[in-house]
Amino acid sequence: MKSPIYLDYAATTPIRPEVASVYMEAMQSVPGNPSSIHGHGRFARKKVDDARSVLAQSIHANQSEITFTSGGTEADNLAITGTAMSRKHLGKHIITTAIEHHAVLTTCEELEKSGFEVTYLPVDRNGRVTVQQVADALREDTILVSVMYGNNEVGTIQPIQQIGELLVDHQSWFHTDAVQAYGVLPINVKDLHVDLLSVSSHKLNGPKGVGFLYQKKGVELTPILHGGSQERKRRAGTENVPSIISFAEAVRLSSEELLEKAVRYTGFQTIMSDVFKQSDIHFEPTLEEGTPVLPHIFNVYFKGTDIESLLVNLDLDGVSVSSGSACTAGSLEPSHVLSAMFGEHSPRLRSSVRFSFGYGITDAEVQEAAERIAKVVKRTAKL
Question: By the 8 A CB rule, do 297 and 155 touch?
């Protein structure tokens, strides 16, 4: 039986052994509730605050600007709905893009049902929006602009800093979903001029079920959870202490390896491309050369293949990959990202695969996976 090879790190990453050790230790040694005033509670509070400091430093923010959440989805919801509810007296217009994660898109759709107006910016064939598009869409009643940092399906990086600079003198707040970019690219919230930024632990070898929202000082959001006064009354609920502590450890380890990872993941893309070329199969990288892209995501179009058959056959051959977002992959509906990029009737929607890389993969595994993929494509493609 062939050894399994995992190439779906954009969906989720395995927890690193060092992080798992920190998690287990915290489970056993930090039993207190951070809101309790006794010794056990104060010790838990210190551990949470120490982790908050590490996470704040990772994006050049202040500790008070970090609000812990259950992950990227909640962080996106808090940023968008929290802004809408707190600023609706200033306007009800929101700008986002057609290729956002569903955590952003479905939240915006829900707000539309409540009387908000949302402009969904189209993208070019590389999945990019321009600063001019944002400028043209801005109105006096625009209260929020939400543009993802790096796309989770194709890896396209958006001009976040330039959009942030555009919005400096406008009333709208600027949110970016940085779930895929965090831990892969250096992030400085001050340079980016963002007011809100969402991240998730499980995308960088931390535990699932924890993330945070960066909330710039002075940005007040209406809470979407009601209960206790945790997180400076921004997010009710007892903090997930072991996950928060180990999340910080995952970030610390990841931050030390940013440049190394970028070089290694780009090398993986080269290995796969070389194998595909040598195998005489028809493939095309989804993004054109020169497009700013996250190094760990490699989306490829295999002409003549059917995505459902391809994924099943690759799985049988021990290679775990995806057609796009894990949140909708079970349905295998055409990708809204590729639809926005190429049109609803493009064959790419049914023949494109996302390969994504992460901690622990070797050149040899990528080479082996590419060879298996090439054989499956050659066997199943109908040209």
Answer: yes
Rounded Cα–Cα distance for residues 313 and 316 (Å): 5
The string of pLDDT tens digits covering residues 307-364 is 999 999 999 999 999 986 544 445 567 899 999 999 999 999 999 999 999 999 999 9
Burial 22-59 (b: 16+ CB within 10 A, else e): bbeebeeebebebeeeeeeeebbbebbeebbebbbebb
pTM of the predicted model, to two decimals? Answer: 0.96
Phi then psi dihedrals of residue 102, to 5 deg: -60, -20
Unique residue bearing structure tokens 């977002």? 325
Active site residues: 327
Going by C-alpha positions, the residue among 312, 323, 285 that lies closest to residue 376 is 312
Residues contacting residue 263 through CB under 8 Å, at least 6 positions apart: none
Q: How many residues does the chain have?
A: 383
Cα–Cα distance measured from residue 79 to residue 222, given in angstroms and rounded to the nearest whole number: 9
Q: How many angstroms separate the first and last alpha carbons of the chain?
A: 30
Contacts of 231 (CB under 8 A, 6+ apart): 67, 68, 239
Q: Are strands 352-356 and 297-302 parallel, antiparallel or unpaired?
A: antiparallel
Domains in the chain (CATH in brackets) are 5-14+257-380 (3.90.1150.10), 17-255 (3.40.640.10)
